[in-house]
Fold this protein.
Amino acid sequence: MMNWIDLLSMHRLGSSEPGRFSVERSQFQRDFDRVIFSGAFRRLQDKTQVFPLQKAEYVRTRLTHSIETSSIGRSLGTAAGKIICRDCDTGSLRADDVGAVVAAAAVSHDIGNPPLGHAGEEAIRYWFTHSQIGQDICSQLTAEEAQDFSAYEGNAQGFRTLTHLEMREQYGGMRLTCATLGAFAKYPCAALVPKRPSGVAGKKFNFFCAEKKLFAEMAEHCGLIQIGPDAWQRHPLAYLVEAADDIAYLIVDFEDGQRLGLVSYEELESRFLPLIDSENAKSYVQKLDTSTQKAEFLRAQLIGTLVRQVTELFAAHHEELLQGTLEKPLTSYLDCAPALDALRERSTKVIYNNRQVVEIVAAGFEMVSGMLDILMPCVEELAAEARGVGRASYRSRRVGAMFPAETLQLKNEAWLASAYLRLLSVLDYVSGMTDGYAVSLYQKLKGISL
């Protein structure tokens, strides 16, 4: 069974110094600050949440979604922290420290997403499994390395961003606390493992082969239960990060859909109001003047209701969480889970599959694949030339001049010798692009605009 002293480890990943308790600003608050001041986090302001390249200012981006998820996560973590500190040994840590861990992990949860969100992930996977260029390059890799790309995962890119790409001059990258990184890791295993975590924790993966050592260090400091090579059971607070994300996108995406006229206010009220546990909500909402005000009120009330109910479920399943045996998300145990599933299905039909969204996502799929068609062969040609094998084409030289220095490491012997590291460096570049930059670069590469 896991214990909270280890799970709330203040050890900073990659550091040789032990984590220290600080009264004025906790180590977990420092984690939050490091993330929000990072370049990778700022780029989320121009990355898709639901509506790609949307000009309406009130519609959420990945940045606003991450901040809202973090706010919900802090509330969940602090409420759960009161239960943890009451029933378990947490040393000098308080309930708000638990809230700070969940907030820092939640604000980071989408930091590795490529342009156009899940469509970008799918485009990368498709390219490596269907493109002849991708298949030829992957043939040079081990099975474990190739799986990193054929099953490409934004969560693993996120762990790489936090622990390597940001502050890359030092081992451990941002050097966040192990508690925050443990809560961040909803899928604590590698892409290809003999045994995956059971249930929801094994649906995806959370680190590439390149970060295997870093993840193992974090897991050891947190005391996560190892179930096999490169696979562990979830950190209990990862369930709260997951719940915060579920609540944010389910409720807030529907609110955005109503603001854009994809669903009526009457439908929003009919779905939100019955789930709110406040007796005064129905009478109060009728006093508000506009549908926007009413929708905002109902959204806030419903989020508050779900935070309270998820906290109760955390307490009810506390022992299973510490044993690593809880197989479903906490939100799936809610009494209102069927109503939330119906809301998700409705959102899929009228919001996520809205023609405007689908058209841009489909074009974006081709855009990401098209960029890889150009960028990957360019890097391979230039790397071969640097090793003294052949000569790169004029085209590859010109395209290569556009790369940032960290992508094209022609003086790095390890990079030159490893197709795996070269692929990672290109995906680091592509996944870090904002939606707008990706569109602009693709148009330039294809000669559509100059």
